[in-house]
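Standup notes
- HV: blocked on the assembly model, inputs below
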Amino acid sequence: MKSAYHHGDLREQLIESALTIIQESGVEGLSLRKLALQVGVSRTAPYHHFKDKHELLCALVALGFNKLTEQTSEVLAEHKQDLAVQFRRYFDVYIDFAVSNPEVYELMFSRLIWKSEQVSEQLHQVAYPCFTAYVAQVKTWQKQGLLTHDESSLRLTQVSWGMMHGIARLLIDGIYVEEKAISEMCACAVNVLLNKAVQ
Amino acid sequence: MKSAYHHGDLREQLIESALTIIQESGVEGLSLRKLALQVGVSRTAPYHHFKDKHELLCALVALGFNKLTEQTSEVLAEHKQDLAVQFRRYFDVYIDFAVSNPEVYELMFSRLIWKSEQVSEQLHQVAYPCFTAYVAQVKTWQKQGLLTHDESSLRLTQVSWGMMHGIARLLIDGIYVEEKAISEMCACAVNVLLNKAVQ
DNA sequence: CGCTTAATTTTGACACTGTCAAGATTGTCG
DNA sequence: CGACAATCTTGACAGTGTCAAAATTAAGCG
């Protein structure tokens, strides 16, 4: 058994443990003391790796955005398929990410994070690429005729992202409860967003 | 100055004070003790009117749903205007409610409320009418040709509500920060949702 | 009026939380 | 080896939700 001091990867172990805790008990079930206890370290040890509880949460959020960006950009990288199918895939992957990681997803878009004065620069740097990649893709889809040209790319991005986000939240917050209907809802959403003029 | 005991409207005064507190400090800034202190009563007095902090929050949520239902049904009651205008009005009023009452709106759709075992029957009774009224209206709009008939009313309701909800949350959670763009976003959202076939 | 009873509020207490200050332990580098 | 910085611990404080028991008041009934 190695010594408790300087075991080197405490920061990562804290993050890992924090993730499993919020997956089981939600964000409000995460206390720094229980977390430290579970990792086998004293109550205030985490404070040498995170200034705050808030900073720990930000680290979880950053990981979440990286994962989401990774999963969505995989979809965007597939060039060889039908455009509508690709769009549908993006929607599905996004919703699936949210439903599979509800607590992290909630944190990623929570007011706790984004309305605090200290939205770290690091956080912007992981969140923005996720959004800007989507904006760029919307522009492409517009050029390809999949999405309408009657609306500005930015507005269309905001509105369609809003739709994904809204459905995701209504699902993970327990307002939309039929898990079976997710697929149908995604299908309907995609149909609504597609440019009807070319059909 | 009347006595502190039995001042009769403590319950309502608690709710009222709680509302102003969360409007100023957010939901996480609301503690039962400070609330009691502010109302001029001892720390545990609220527990004779609300079993829980959770139950107090549920009361705020119920008020919120009543207010939202009231404001949206006003729009639905106006029969004499253009259908697209009415739809747009609904969207605007909904978003405006969320932006004007961000903390209450967040509570109304929070997992804290809907994923707790005790989603009171009373809560369902105020939340459902708000939703079912919208479902009914979507059906009507479909019959009138404003919305497409290619999708089921339920799915179209869920998806369009999801869009409103998503945009609302991205606004009040500080992800969409341009307040000026709200109107343009609503316009774009409505355009996307309208049935293009008849244009 | 007075007595009983229920409704309401208070005081005291407990476990839990985030966080700070001061001290203890360990690795690192000259 | 010795100084220094990094890391961890112990002790402490204010604040939280909530329960139990006691105190206070209102209401109903003779």
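- HV (later): unblocked. Chain B touches chain A at residues 26, 28, 102, 106, 109-112, 114-115, 148, 150-152, 155-156, 158-170, 172-176, 181, 184-185, 187-189, 191-193, 196-197 (CB under 8 Å). The CA atoms of residues 58 and 185 of chain B lie 31 Å apart.
- Next: hand off to the docking folks.
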